C-alpha cells in the first residue's frame, strides 16, 4: 500500500454564495419552504476556499448574479480539459442563464467556450479521470451530450446510468482520488454501469448510503488530501486506510440545495 501519496496543485473556479437560496425544487434535496442560513452558508463557503488555499491550491472567483441562487455550484458550468472549455446547457430553465455568466468569465480569462447543443451540466455529470471522461446520465446530462463531449475532446467517454434521484448528478455519487483510482457509491448506478465501474476500478474506495447521503462522494481530492464532509466518517476512515489524508470541510447549508464540496468547485485543467 502506498504510504506517501503526492498532491498536485489545482486551479479552482468558484462563485460566492451571496445570492444562494432554495427558491425552487429541481432535485429531492430542495424544499423551498426550508430556510437557508445565508450567514452560515457564507462562513462555510469561506472556510472551503481558505482550506483550498491553505493546501496550496489556486482559487479564482466568478461574480455571483442576483436571481441565480444555484450559481454557487460552479462545477455545473463547464468541464475543462487541456485548457479547452466545454460549456453547459442546463436542464432546468431556472439555471439556464448561469451559463452565459460563466462563459463571460472564461472568455475574459482567455478561453474559448464551446456551447453544447444537448443538455449537459458540466462537471456535475462529466468527471475527468486523466484517462477517461466518466459521464452520468439519467436525470440531467443526456446521452447525446456524451457523444458531443467525446467528439469535442477526443477522450473516451464512458456513459454511466444513474438510478437514484438523490444522486441526480454523477458527482454526487463518484469522485476521482488520483490518476489511478476513484471512490463511488455503487447503488446510485444501474447494474450494468456498476459492472463497468468494477471492471475499470477493481480497487475503488466504496462509499455506503450513509456516506453518500452526507455528500461524501461529492468530495475533492488533490491526490493526497481529500476535502470531505465531516459526517462521512466511514468514508474518511476508509480513505485514511488507503493512505489519503481526509480534510473535513462542512458545507451542510448547501446540502439543502442538493450540493456539496465538489458541486461548489470547478477545476480548470491547463
Ligand atoms: N440545486 C442544484 C441543482 O439541482 C445543485 C447542483 C449541485 N451541483 C452538482 N455539481 N452536483 O442543479
Protein architecture, described:
- The longest helix has 17 residues.
- This protein is 25% helix and 20% strand.
- By secondary structure, the chain is of the alpha/beta class.
- The protein has a single domain, classed as L-arginine/glycine Amidinotransferase, Chain A (5-stranded Propeller).
- A three-stranded mixed β-sheet has the order 2-1-15.
- The mean pLDDT is 97.
- β13, α6 and β14 form a beta-alpha-beta unit.
- The protein is built from seven helices and 15 strands.
- Arginine binds next to loops.
Shape: globular
Poorly predicted runs of 5 or more residues: none
Mean pLDDT: 97
Order of helices and strands: EHEEEHEEEHEEEHEHEEHEHE
The hetero molecules present are:
arginine
Biggest beta sheet summary: 3 strands, mixed
Number of β-strand runs: 15
How many domains make up the coordinates?
A: 1
Query: SS-based structural class?
Result: alpha/beta
CA distance, first residue to last residue: 30 Å
Instruction: Provide the spatial order of strands within the biggest beta sheet.
Output: 2-1-15
Might you state the CATH topology name?
L-arginine/glycine Amidinotransferase, Chain A
Radius of gyration: 17 Å
- Kindly state the percentage of residues in helix: 10-25%
List keywords for this structure.
270 residues, alpha/beta, L-arginine/glycine Amidinotransferase, Chain A, 7 helices, binds arginine
